Amino acid sequence: MKFLAAATLGIALFVWTTASVGVSTLVVQVNQLGGMLPLMLGLAALRFALQAAGWRIAMGPANRPSLLQAMRAVIAGEAAGYLTWGPISREPVKALMVGEQTPHRVSLSAAIVERVAYMGAATGLVAFSLMLVAVRAGRGDWIAPGFAAAIVVAGLWLAAKDRRSRFGGTGPAYAPASLAALVSFAILQEIINVLETYAVFAWLGAAATIESAIALEGLNRLANAPAQLIPGKLGVLELAGSTFAGVLQLGHANGLTLVIARRVRSLAWTGMGVLLLTTSASRARTARRNPAIV
Question: CA-based Rg of the chain, rounded to a whole angstrom?
Fold first, then answer.
């Protein structure tokens, strides 16, 4: 029942946002972005690779699957999260996909560590974007919420850092070099997101700058939290993208077009993730029926 209610709310928000921008305008702009789709798909693949690399680091050398195996698991997990309830389904599916190489306890714990690192990078982007918007609007009091969020996430990260686990062998849970690599991979993912935003707006002919792309990407991150339990974050991201782009004088239609283009990209990768999931499930069933088949 909750799933149906969340999906209904998302659809209503999507319809309302699309109607407010104008369907005809949106169709023209989405068609204009057709040439950008290969680049967006490629940037998503790079983000998956960075996420997989960070996840592998968090597992420790004794338990790591190959980078390709980890990336396959990340794509499958993202598909499950996109179609259902975000992190509630994403991380368990990732762990299931590498279950033959890595114990579930280790892979799940590592996934949480990697996601906390990503949350830290995302929170830093949000804080910086709020600072940019506050400076442009002459509202210094807007900076405080960004710093407060950054402090909260930093506290969560430090709490996770103090845990003892099989991360990098015995001793402290986080070796400095491994920690630096994990954080770097998370930051690189956010840099790619910002560059994608800038590239799309430039392609649409909007007067975008790197500064405005950072501000828009950070503000859009604020919409992620309330959208987590809505399948695909439908409607919420469209409303946020259109609204924030308008606030930054980048055009409501351009903001909505960016979100829809990302949906097309996400759906393409979700299809790949579903294929990987079904293939893995079929292989597991075959193995149970005939253990001699490898």
Answer: 20
Return d(Cα 249, Cα 44) in angstroms, integer.
Answer: 27
Give residue 25's pLDDT.
67
Question: What percent of the residues of the chain are helix, what percent strand, and what percent coil, each to the nearest 5?
Answer: 80, 0, 20
Q: Are 13 and 237 in contact (CB under 8 A)?
A: no
Annotated domain spans of the chain: 2-281
Report d(CA 239, CA 47) in Å as an integer. 24
Look at residues 87, 85, 93 and name the one whose alpha carbon lies nearest to residue 7. Answer: 85
Which residue type occupies 147?
F
pLDDT one-digit tens code per residue, 278-290:
998 777 677 666 6
User: What amino acid occupies position 203?
Assistant: W
> What are the φ and ψ backbone dihedral angles of 101, each rounded to 5 degrees?
-100, -30
> How confident is the model over 194-233, as pLDDT tens digits?
999 999 999 988 888 899 999 999 988 887 766 666 767 7
Q: What residues contact 288, with CB distance under 8 A and at least 6 apart?
A: none
Backbone angles phi, psi at 292, to 5 degrees: -75, -20
Question: pLDDT category, 100, cuts 50, 70, 90?
Answer: confident
Dihedral of CA atoms 37, 38, 42, 43 in degrees, nearest 10, equals: -30
Residues sharing a CB contact under 8 Å with residue 281, sequence separation 6 or more, in sequence order? none
Q: Is 235 left (phi over 0), alpha (psi -120 to 50) or beta?
A: left
Average pLDDT score over residue span 112-123 = 88
How far is residue 179 CA from its own chain's centroid? Answer: 20
How far apart, in whole angstroms, are the C-alpha atoms of residue 94 and residue 107? 8
- The rounded percent of the chain whose pLDDT value lies above 90 is 32
Any idea what the Cα angle at residue 150 is, between residues 148 and 153, rounded to 5°?
A: 110
